[in-house]
Amino acid sequence: xxDFRMNRLNPLSSTCLLFLVLAGVGQFKFQVFAEAxxxxxxxADNLGYGDLKSYNPDSMIQTPRLDRLATESARLTSFYxxxxxxxxxxxxxxTGRIPQRHGLDYQLPGLEGNYGVGLNQSEVLIPQVLKxxxxxxxxxxxxxxxxxxxxxxxxTERGFDEFIGHASGNMDYYTHNYRLKxxxxxxxxxxxxxGEYATDIFADAAxxxxxxxxxxxxPWFCYLPFNAPHFPSARNKQPGERNIxxxxxxxFETYGWxxxxxxxxxRYAAVVTALDQAIGRVLDCLDDxxxxxxxxxxFMSDNGGFRLDREGIDIGINDPLRSGGVTCxxxxxxxxxxxxxxxxIQEGSIIDETFWSPDLMAAxxxxxxxxxxxxxxxxGKDPLPILTEGAKSEHESLFFVYxxxxxxxxxxxxxxxxxxxxxxxxxxxxxxxxxxxxxxEKEPKQLARLEFLFREWEASLSKL
Length: 464
Hints:
This protein is an alpha/beta fold and 464 residues long. Helix content is 27%, strand content 20%. It folds into three domains: 3-34, no CATH class; 38-389, Alkaline Phosphatase, subunit A, CATH 3.40.720; 404-462, Arylsulfatase, C-terminal domain (2-Layer Sandwich), CATH 3.30.1120. The chain has 13 helices and 20 strands. A ten-stranded mixed sheet has the order 11-10-7-6-12-3-13-14-4-15, covered by helices on one side. Strands 17-18-19-20 form a four-stranded antiparallel sheet, covered by helices on one side. The longest helix has 26 residues, at 264-289. Mean pLDDT is 93; it is low at 1-33.
């Protein structure tokens, strides 16, 4: 039995079994064992750090269910994705490894990339670890895959028992096309649901999975990677079709707007509100199934909102962070995240410890009692002490490289550069969250320390 389930759970929990173990003559020792919790990981796609009122009170976007989740959860304010783009961030989350280790360090390009091998098939994913638990988990994935869809790379070939979703990095919300190819699947077979809103398709699939599987004796793992609020793509449209943000009529009417509203920011808000309602329905399903108290829920954005100045596209707000997706500025890699586990994680708390998405693999192994792959370098550390006990982060530093951008955070300090030919910039994030005051010249010792840590990371990668 792993340490977490023996020592950290509330011994009065109704899910716990108490055993008396003889520890010596005349002495007895109590050990606490608990049934493994269900695990629900929800990701949004390109959601901005400042889009939610719980992170930015000035946001005009209506997200009542995520606002409520923030009050029921620990809200994480220094949580990072291991990469600032969709494909790579998902590969890091599912493997517990940074891109320089698992090899998928680029966004999969076009049909050839998205329907190719993608992530190396030798990489072990979270659902495969959960299958090694003392009580193996039943597993489902519903939403955006985006790490390869060739034979052997598809979700049901990589540890998931069930899958409804799309192979690509983005698809039309109603036609489900990616570059005019139909891109919605159940298992490995195409699924025709023309005219249904993609966000609701994925939420409905997750709800059906949870309802069915909660009646069984096995714990379940649900990975729910929504494609919302990813921006629309003209390449997914028919000739003459407008490239606009897509949401159900009711989402516009929530604000008193017409579904024909032309304002890009308003249309984006409707997409996020529709996502919020879908997440709420999934959380309600946990209540209905009677499994809320025994379900670990983690919500995050895959990366920050994009801020590339494309008209009508780059709408997400990352305030007060700098820049956004595909960069290593805070707006690209620091993301909204919440963790809920009633009775174990303090509701309404704020956790500012620094940790990141590869830690979720370690959390899943610890929660389930599953075995992490042997002989594989992991970049994740068990985050459960941070979430349940208020412990300090075990990470000395976090390392980021995407394309020419690079960064490293250690404590309150961060170095960042826009390409290898430019000098490092240095910021104190505790005092300067917006990365506006470069301290490289004023703090040469801190700069040298972080540069040394960056080189240590590089040296460890060169040995692979």
